[in-house]
Amino acid sequence: QVRLVQSGGGLVQNGGSLRLSCAASGDTFSSYVMGWFRQAPGKEREFVAATSWSGKTTFYGDSVKGRFTSSRDNVKNTVYLQMNSLKPEDTAVYYCAAANTINVATTPVRYDYWGQGTQVTVSS
Fold this sequence. Notes:
Blueprint: E1 2-7, E2 10-13, E3 18-26, E4 33-39, E5 46-51, E6 58-60, E7 68-73, E8 78-83, E9 92-99, E10 113-114, E11 118-123
Parallel strand pairs: 2-11
Antiparallel strand pairs: 1-3, 3-8, 4-5, 4-9, 5-6, 7-8, 9-10, 9-11
């Protein structure tokens, strides 16, 4: 069992930056692939980023490549999502998730545990 607690998010202007954090407790954090997803109203949950156990490999969704950075600290049991050059279309509820899998996963069904979600709103 893994419990994920998110923090960060909020309201930011177009072009601004935010950092989300996701703190894990319970099972061994370093054995889980950690992912980020987002969901806007009326839309399906969208893949944002996923980071391997070691943090050496990270995949990004096409819409956030070059602007978002996912990283993890296996000592602090925390994963971060640094979001730069934010756009109004980035507005969504953002979720962190943990997958007990060997390979980095980019689909929600591969993830076993989810954070509570945090709202990110980018104003134009």
